[in-house]
Amino acid sequence: MTVHAHELATTAGQLLSSPGGITYTTAPGTRARAASALLRLALDEAMDTFWRDVSPTMTRATGRTKALCLEWYTSPSVARQWYAVWSALSAACHHHIYELPPTPSEVRVWHQDVTELLNVLPATRR
Questions:
Q1: Which tens digits make up the pLDDT trace of 50-90?
Q2: Could you tell me the pLDDT band of residue 23, with boundaries at 50, 70 and 90?
Q3: Per-residue pLDDT tens over the stretch 114-125
Q4: What is the rounded distance in angstroms from the CA atom of residue 9 to the CA atom of residue 5?
Q5: Which residues contact 68 (CB under 8 A, 6 or more apart)?
Q6: DSSP 86-101
């Protein structure tokens, strides 16, 4: 079963905001890293969905290859934004003991970027 990219982004947003009446027991940094992982999954799912429609063999390519080829099918600004956000989220998802987790405010900015990309990417298909 595949989870839709918008659902992953919504869940990431819920991790970043504390709704009334709910108290999280995990640290903000842990929730931010989890939200980063969900946002990266959302980007990957959106990209796979895009490539399934355009060229199904591209779904087996690496994320970097998909991003490089994306420029030929969308505007260069969309391709650059996708790659920049994907790279930042990839770095945030890989835990290193000597690095601090991403801050919730950083992940909120990435969440806005991912939400924008999810809305723009399908509309830019040729």
A1: 998 888 898 889 888 888 899 898 889 999 999 999 999 99
A2: low
A3: 999 999 886 544
A4: 6
A5: none
A6: HHHHHHHHS--TTSPP
Q: What is the 3 state secondary structure string of 21-90? A: CCCCCCCHHHHHHHHHHHHHHHHHHHHHHHHHHHCHHHHHCCHHHHHHHHCCCCCHHHHHHHHHHHHHHH
- Indicate whether 126 pLDDT > 50: no
Could you tell me if 111 and 16 are in contact, meaning their C-beta atoms sit under 8 angstroms apart?
Answer: yes
Contact 106, 34 (CB under 8 A): no
**What single-letter amino acid sits at 49?**
T
> Which helix (H) or strand (E) element contains residue 12?
helix 5-16
Quote the tokens at residue 55.
């060229």
CA distance 40 to 118: 12
**Could you tell me the pTM of the whole model?**
0.85
- SS3 of 1, please? coil
pLDDT at site 124: 41
Q: Which residues of 14-41 are buried (b: 16+ CB within 10 A; e: fewer)?
A: ebbeeeeeeeeeeebeebbbbbbbbbbb
